[in-house]
Amino acid sequence: EPGFPSRMMHKESGKGDDAERTQNKKPELGIIRGSSDAQVGDSALAKEFAQRALAPLISDLRGRHGRFEPRKVAGAIGISPQQLADCLEVSLDAVQMSPPPPGLEERLEPFAMVIGIVRDVYGGDSNRVRTWLRTPRPELEGQTPIDTMCVPSGIQRVIQFVLGAWLRNAD
Length: 171
Hints:
The protein is mainly alpha-helical. It is built from eleven helices and no strands. Helix 1 packs across helix 2 (18-32) and helix 2 (18-32) runs antiparallel to helix 11 (154-169). The chain is globular, with a radius of gyration of 17 Å.
């Protein structure tokens, strides 16, 4: 059931008290607006939940070695392998290796997480996912999610934004 993550969090922290339950929503809304109160987006538990819930939505981004393949991630985002290489500040050769070189998969994981969340929101519609990633967002200071993901700390801002929205919409 898509609504369970948010309700589970409220039961844990709100103990059924309506006033407390209302207060528990404020940090999540703060993430949507891009504030510094990123408790939900930064929560290790929230990230672990998201990674488990998203696994089936991003399995196609993995190669036969079970690792994220840069060219598959680039395709899902709607950018070329060269654009992904530039974004990650690695060589095109590194992006085209299969399996990817050590350390590259860890850098692809946050991209896969964003792709999975946006896919979930849009019912797996690849065109809508790519359109969303290329559309300037006021929550990201008018930048597109793709552009934001390619600057230092930008990927974390995009994750906080989409994870917060996803968990908030789970109600």
